[in-house]
Amino acid sequence: TIDGLCIKNSGFGIHGGTSAPSYTLKGLTVRNCEFGWIGGYGTAENRLGNGIEIWGGAVDFIVENNYFYQIYDAGVTFQFSSEDKEADVENVQFKNNVFDYCNYSIEYFMTIPGDKKMKDFVIDGNLCWNAGKRK
Asked: What is the pTM of this model?
């Protein structure tokens, strides 16, 4: 659990990932935090920077009561793309956050083999202002 931190002026706020065999992060809660002026680094072709990014699947991933602003890419995201690796998505909750001037408030994408599905995925009570804009 990450609770009550102010994370500003960095390439990523929180950046987590997983490795074999499951490529699934389990049991991360982020609440009551502030994320500001995150991202915009990289190359001219590929600029990066998310407030919270999980590379891989996510189980019991909860993001609640946070403030995200001036985020180059996504306020919060989990993402994974693989033709031969397994990842699970279950009990993911993005609740009661404020997003302001994030390119994407909430982003997720999963490209995984087989018939995997997202289960118990909740987006609720978030305020998403000025998405796609930069000051």
From this structure: 0.91
